[in-house]
């Protein structure tokens, strides 16, 4: 279970204001659950138990066990939704085996350094791409597949189409399916996320169990009893009031990639028709010493959603010593308690500075509660997109850069565009350069 603390949303958002949205919320809720809205072909994630049934979980676990027995490191190759979910869970929960990530950028430095780190290690490689044609992971996969131990390549991709499917069939590698009805950013609890997570040694059944519990809670149509509806309603009301940026804020560095995953989820789902809250993230207290000033006194366009871990953290107390560092008042205090005080102080200060906030409390950060949280955000994102009047399950805008890149790299089929784009990019010529 998670708990929402909505005290600092007032007066912008109050339970009464949310109650006034009941009809709109009920419509968005029904549109999502009945599959009657835009993008309804992509609701395969809605039922987490069906998305990965027992047979599929067993298959994933058995592949993970086999790879763990034969290798030291898994290189997970993917980008966007084929990357962020697995990384979010693995970085948050740790595990006992190293998973490295490749193909989430095109940096020669990043990939050379990774190759260096992997020297002398026995590698498994998991190529993950729903379309099977995304350039970044395809490029990285060419580099890393050569280094895998025999029989230790797994392709997670569309059942029938795409270049990755073709290559995997030709080479006889093991494969895991990505259903048509599951888009990348909603795929963490499918084979896309689950194989790397299982390789890391994290209990994928617990993760799924948390998501199933959240799905049950989210079936409730009354926004007062359904945290998913409440969150979707609150951010929508704030957007209508003119707020433009939602910052997901944590005080726990191991949530870094959960914040990154959330940004893709909301950015791709809602950033359409020149609308939507811009999803950003901050990691406190680190960022209080860089972004804190802006949060307190910059342009008042920000709302904050805190994700706070309440318990289960290791005990670490401040040791005694002379009081020259003026920390005597904290001797014997738990670091976790100091961090909690920092959260309370921050939420209060920001609220008083004009930043409304909502806090999501997790009793502890384990597989169950993380599964609950991930599903919470997915489900709220579907509702939120429908409240906004967009299709939360497509991402047509992402194609624009790809088309340009293919043109500039003269990919077969893009020859005509190639000349035009090269002319555009070079148009300003020397005149545009400012040299020093
Ligand atoms: O899994 P893939 O087909 O390789 O896609 C990976 C990612 O690339 C894209 O460009 C999309 O914007 C993302 O939604 C997707 O998750």
Describe the structure.
By secondary structure, the protein is α/β, with parallel strands linked by helices. 46% of the residues lie in helices and 15% in strands. The protein folds into 2 domains: 215 residues, Rossmann fold (3-Layer(aba) Sandwich); 155 residues, Rossmann fold. The mean pLDDT is 96. The protein contains 17 helices and 10 strands. It has a 5-stranded mixed sheet with strand order 1-10-9-7-8, sandwiched between helices. It has a 5-stranded parallel sheet with strand order 3-2-4-5-6, with helices on both faces. The protein starts with a strand and ends in a 10-residue tail after the last helix. The structure holds 6-O-phosphono-alpha-D-glucopyranose (G6P). 6-O-phosphono-alpha-D-glucopyranose (G6P) binds next to loops. Pathway: Carbohydrate degradation; glycolysis; D-glyceraldehyde 3-phosphate and glycerone phosphate from D-glucose: step 2/4; Carbohydrate biosynthesis; gluconeogenesis. Its main location: cytoplasm.
């Amino acid at each position: 279970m998670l708990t929402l603390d909505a005290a600092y949303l007032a007066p912008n958002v109050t339970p009464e204001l949310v109650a006034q949205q009941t009809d709109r919320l009920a419509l968005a809720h029904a549109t999502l659950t009945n599959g009657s809205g835009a993008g309804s072909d992509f609701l395969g994630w809605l039922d987490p138990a069906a998305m990965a049934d027992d047979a599929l979980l067993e298959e994933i676990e058995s592949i993970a066990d086999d790879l763990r027995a034969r290798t030291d490191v898994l290189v997970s190759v993917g980008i966007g939704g084929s990357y962020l979910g697995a990384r979010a869970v693995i970085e948050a929960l740790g595990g006992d085996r190293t998973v490295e990530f490749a193909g989430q950028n095109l940096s020669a430095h990043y990939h050379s350094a990774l190759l260096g780190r992997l020297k002398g290690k026995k590698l498994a490689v998991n190529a993950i791409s729903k379309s099977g044609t995304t350039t970044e992971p395809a490029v990285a996969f060419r580099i890393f597949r050569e280094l895998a131990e025999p029989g230790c390549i797994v392709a997670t991709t569309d059942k029938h189409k795409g270049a990755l499917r073709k290559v995997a069939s030709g080479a006889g590698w093991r494969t895991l399916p990505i259903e048509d009805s599951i888009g990348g950013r909603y795929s963490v609890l499918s084979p896309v996320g689950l194989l790397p997570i299982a390789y890391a040694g994290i209990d994928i059944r617990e993760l799924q169990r948390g998501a199933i519990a959240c799905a049950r809670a989210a079936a409730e149509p009354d926004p007062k009893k359904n945290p998913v509806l409440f969150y979707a309603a609150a951010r929508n009301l704030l957007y209508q009031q003119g707020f433009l940026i939602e910052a997901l804020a944590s005080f726990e560095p191991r949530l870094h990639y959960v914040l990154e995953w959330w940004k893709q989820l909301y950015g791709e789902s809602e950033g359409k028709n020149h609308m939507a809250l811009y999803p950003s993230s901050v990691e406190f207290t680190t960022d209080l010493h860089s972004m804190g000033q802006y949060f307190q006194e910059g342009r008042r366009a920000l709302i904050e959603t805190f994700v706070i871990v309440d318990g289960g953290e290791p005990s670490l107390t401040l040791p005694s010593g002379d009081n020259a560092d003026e920390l005597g008042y904290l001797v014997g205090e738990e670091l976790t308690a100091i961090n909690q005080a920092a959260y309370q102080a921050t939420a209060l200060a920001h609220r008083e500075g004009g930043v409304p906030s909502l806090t999501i409390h997790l009793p502890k950060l384990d597989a169950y509660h993380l599964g609950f949280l991930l599903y919470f955000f997915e489900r709220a994102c579907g509702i939120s997109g429908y409240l906004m009047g967009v299709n939360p399950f497509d991402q047509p805008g992402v194609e624009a850069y790809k088309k340009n890149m293919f043109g500039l790299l003269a990919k077969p089929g893009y020859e005509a565009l190639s000349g035009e784009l090269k002319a555009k990019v070079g148009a300003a010529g020397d005149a545009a350069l400012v040299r020093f």
